[in-house]
């Protein structure tokens, strides 16, 4: 996934009304190569619900529209090592993204590249309660550089669409889970 990879990444789907809560999404190429995305997102559920979705590593593929699978998952001493296999229309074949993720003390998650078909991958989610505690304000940052001939400007265009879809899916699942 360019957004897994493009996030822990996503497809070309349409964005429904839940995506309207997206305060801001900025995606741009970096002068030294790669793409950086930042976003401020309001989720319709508590930080605990959003944190549980983002740290349910075995089910990460459910949060994206791009085809991916978890090839291996090891959780040890609070660190989740995830080996993802991603199929993306911009990159023929299956591509590997191996990351380590850690929960942040104040709420959120940081994920860094440890191997695979990427030169750089760094993602940070910072979560905070909003409203009456039944919403989450999330600050998101993702830096990705792929070992590929695909130009960064094209990766940036795809990443924007994938992240919009990813945020929409997380919002839907958060809302669904908060009603349980």
Structural class: alpha+beta
Oligomer: single chain
Question: In what order do the strands lie side by side in the largest sheet?
Answer: 1-2-8-7-6-5-4-3
Please write the string of helix (H) and strand (E) elements: EEHEEEEEEH
> Rounded to an integer, what's the Rg over CA atoms?
15 Å
How large a portion of the residues is in β-strands, by DSSP E? over 45%
Poorly predicted sequence stretches spanning 5 or more consecutive residues: 1-22
What kind of sheet is the major sheet?
Answer: 8 strands, antiparallel
Shape: globular
Amount of helix: 10-25%
Helices, by number, come to 2
Q: Could you tell me how far the N terminus lies from the C terminus, measured between alpha carbons in angstroms?
A: 29 Å
Please provide the count of β strands. 8
Give the overall pLDDT as a whole number.
Answer: 87
Give your account of this protein's structure.
- The protein has 180 residues and is α+β, with helices and mostly antiparallel strands.
- 19% of the residues lie in helices and 47% in strands.
- An eight-stranded antiparallel sheet has the order 1-2-8-7-6-5-4-3.
- A hairpin with a 1-residue loop joins strand 6 and strand 7.
- The N terminus is likely disordered.
Topology:
Blueprint: E1 22-29, E2 35-43, H1 47-54, E3 67-76, E4 79-88, E5 91-103, E6 108-116, E7 118-130, E8 135-146, H2 152-178
Antiparallel strand pairs: 1-2, 2-8, 3-4, 4-5, 5-6, 6-7, 7-8
Helix pairs in contact: 1-2
